[in-house]
């Protein structure tokens, strides 16, 4: 069942990228789809992790929030780069408690921290996240836990 | 006409942010802080460029491809940054902290 | 206007290359090359519109993935000293040992 969905998704992807409708090209597309599915089956990677789609409203709302955060922190870092004289930074290494239970939520949280300029995840383990922050302000913003609350809880891989 | 202006604005702003990120690469004192400068060019700068180009393309296959590039950059760039930071930390590279003097950054050349 | 964007990207690539040349650590160099890769993707995308050849976007798409894999491969090489051990067993991770 998963093989069939994977094959149709790959073919859809091929079609969206090529946009051709000639018989020969469609046949070639089907052939390359079958080859990819065969390789994926040989590598044993057609499992539940192949479909990380949980396109719920929560996740969409979170992406909007993340975009806003990225914009704000970008402006902050740009200001710090463009200050004249010595750079106005105070690098910090802080440890945050892991706020999320499922692996995917945890991964989304850690990646969001890295994606916003000014904070980079140094290490991610089961119970804590070590973060390098560019400034005291960025570190304090993370420690309020606002972003941790915004990440949707219990996002599961729909199998 | 409005779309043209908007796309022009996005492209110029994106180029400006890229140059600012490049300047940041040279102004920041150590590796970990430079990662934040790379963060600018990977997120907002890339997004502005691709949005600006998508305004030019309209609703075509080209803008779908631009969206795919956007999505790939947004999924791979934090992973690459995290891997770099993690490898540097495991490799024993000490970050400059605010208590140390930011100016004397020569001692971090090699652990 | 594409010319302005292309020139801006080229200046950014030059700045990143200067950082890659001046180091000081190997991680700085890899990070700078990652940045050059991202800028190259944008350069290809802008160039596709500059010359009105939209098929170049496919190349930008593939370059995005190759850039990521390249960074990961180089990091693995730096950390392990080779690309064939799986990195799970710590005794294989010594970069000095290369007689395996």
Question: What are its keywords?
Answer:
heterotrimer; A: 159 residues; mainly alpha; 2 domains; 6 helices; 3 strands; 56% helix; elongated; C: 100 residues; 0% strand; flat; disordered C terminus
Detailed description of the structure:
The complex is a heterotrimer of chains A (about 160), B (about 110) and C (about 100). Chain A is mainly alpha-helical. Chain A has helices spanning about 1-20, 25-40, 55-80, 105-115, 135-145, 145-150, and strands at about 90-95, 120-125, 130-135. In chain A, about 25% of the residues are buried. The model of chain A has no long low-confidence stretch (mean pLDDT about 80). Chain B has about 110 residues and is mainly alpha-helical. Chain B has one domain. The radius of gyration of chain B is 18 Å and the shape is elongated. The N and C termini of chain B lie far apart (about 55 Å). Chain C contains three helices and no strands. Chains B and C meet through helix 1, helix 2 and helix 3 of B and helix 1, helix 2 and helix 3 of C.
Topology (SSEs and partners):
The complex is a heterotrimer of chains A (159), B (111) and C (100).
Chain A: H1 2-18, H2 23-42, H3 57-82, E1 92-97, H4 103-115, E2 119-124, E3 128-133, H5 136-143, H6 146-150
Antiparallel strand pairs in A: 1-3, 2-3
Helix pairs in contact in A: 1-2
Chain B: H1 2-27, H2 31-57, H3 61-90
Helix pairs in contact in B: 1-2, 2-3
Chain C: H1 2-22, H2 26-50, H3 56-80
Helix pairs in contact in C: 1-2, 2-3
